[in-house]
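Components:
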Amino acid sequence: MSLRLEDLSWSVDGRLVVDGVDCTPPTGALTGLLGPNGAGKSTLLRLVAGVVRADRGGAVLDGEDLLALRRRERARRLALVEQEAVAEVPLTVRDAVLLGRTPHGGPWAGTSRHDLEVVDAALAEAGAGELADRVLGTLSGGERQRVHVARALAQEPRLLLLDEPTNHLDVHAQLDLLHLLRGLTQRGVTVVAALHDLNLAASSCDHVVLLARGRVVAAGGVRDVLTPAVLEPVYGVRCHVLEHPVTGRPVLTFDPLGGPGAHGAVAR
Ligand SMILES: Nc1ncnc2c1ncn2[C@@H]1O[C@H](COP(=O)(O)OP(=O)(O)OP(=O)(O)O)[C@@H](O)[C@H]1O
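Structure:
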């Protein structure tokens, strides 16, 4: 049983933004979705979440075609934390996270004691417990990000998709979030996160999928994909791979194509 993306494709204005993506992020693992700006990472996550309707292809979770499910059924299986999600209504943090329980209630169901327990646990787990009574719109970017993660946790998804979840987070909060995501994988949740920070991916991910121009360029373990031969042509930079002195995981350094100290724009 796993997540399988099959030939997922989407185009706009005659341009293929996501172009026949096939990949299988492992179950109960943290997969980093990587690629340069405009590679199609956000769009791919939105396609899998059914926010954008794919022109072609499917996303199969544990044998079920996610895209064929009704929205509410899909929301019981997966949660998406979007980039820069903004609050348009003056909700408190607790109410915003409570929205994550909506797919689990019946049409006339009110808020149950269980819902409130799940919400409190999600807030605590996301490090947002102290924000519970604040108004969402008054939070800082990093605080808001934690609340969006808490809302996704309250959904109790089997598949968690996150678009640049470390945006706005300081280094401590980034590590906390990665720790949280890894904890979820140990409970069997499949997590796919679009990440720009290749070192964060190298230190935290079990699996990575590298996109460029809407296509999968490479997919596999961090040691197989995060190599100069793979990264340099995709990002147009020089890359060196070192070894972390404690974990033994790859640590990447980057230079302009002309080498350290070279000035000017990086060619793409
Ligand atoms: N609704 C849309 N209309 C027109 N172009 C779009 C639309 N959605 C996405 N695109 C284009 O598709 C390409 C991929 O966008 P997407 O946001 O998926 O990339 P990304 O890899 O997430 O980029 P970034 O790392 O910069 O966030 C971009 O060139 C973007 O401008």
